[in-house]
Amino acid sequence: MSKDSAEVKKTFDIKREIYEWAQALVTAVIAFVLIYTFGARIIGVDGHSMEPTLHDEEKLLISKLFYKPDRGDVIMFTKKGVEVSGYDMANKPQPLVKRVVGLPGDVIDIDSDSIVRVNGVAIDEPYIKDHGPKRGDAWDYPVTVPDGCLFVMGDNRPVSLDSRYSSVGMVDQRCVLGKVLLRVYPFDDFGSIG
């Protein structure tokens, strides 16, 4: 093989290598965007409203792929205009994590002892930290959850800003980022949230 043909082959191999790397990078970016948009993502917990189930600064894997909300699900959603932990979210909503209590058409009632009833039945809530005395300021109970919306509450009721309050209210299902699937950080608590 002559010196000139070796240089041509080397140039050809470099161009091919660059092309293959570029193709792999574009594929990875497209896959990331599709997974992020339609699949799963990791989002952090900010605050104490879901204790003892979830804690501040934990990282959660969520997914919206083929997701249909159900009572008891822990979800993440965004809500414009809500101020949480000092963030002014008027322009850039901070993800909130809460538990789905009511689905479209459900009648929600919270009595003076903070017992939650869905369609007239008191719900069993072994996951809550404290019922607390708060009914919120948003509704004259009972209230019916509108079509396309969810009624959500935190597990730590005395400190949770949720559907009981006019600043959050009913959550439009289009604002749901996904259902919480796993706790991924801290690593010693890795697993389902129960």
Question: Which keywords apply here?
Answer:
194 residues, alpha+beta, Umud Fragment, subunit A, 2 domains, 1 helix
Number of structural units classed as domains: 2
Number of helices: 1
User: Could you describe the largest sheet, including whether it forms a barrel?
Assistant: 7 strands, antiparallel
What is the overall pLDDT average?
Answer: 82
User: Which spans of ≥5 residues are poorly predicted at pLDDT below 50?
Assistant: none
The N- and C-terminal alpha carbons lie at a distance of: 67 Å
CATH class of the largest domain: Mainly Beta
**What is the H level of CATH, i.e. the homologous superfamily of the largest domain?**
Umud Fragment, subunit A
The string of secondary-structure elements, in order, is HEEEEEEEEEEEEE
Helix proportion of residues, in percent?
10-25%
Number of strands: 13
Beta percentage is 25-35%
CATH topology of the largest domain: Umud Fragment, subunit A
Specify the CATH architecture of the largest domain: Ribbon
Query: Which class of secondary structure composition applies to the elements?
Result: alpha+beta
Shape: elongated
Radius of gyration from the CA trace?
24 Å
As laid out across the biggest beta sheet, the strand order is: 1-2-13-3-6-11-12
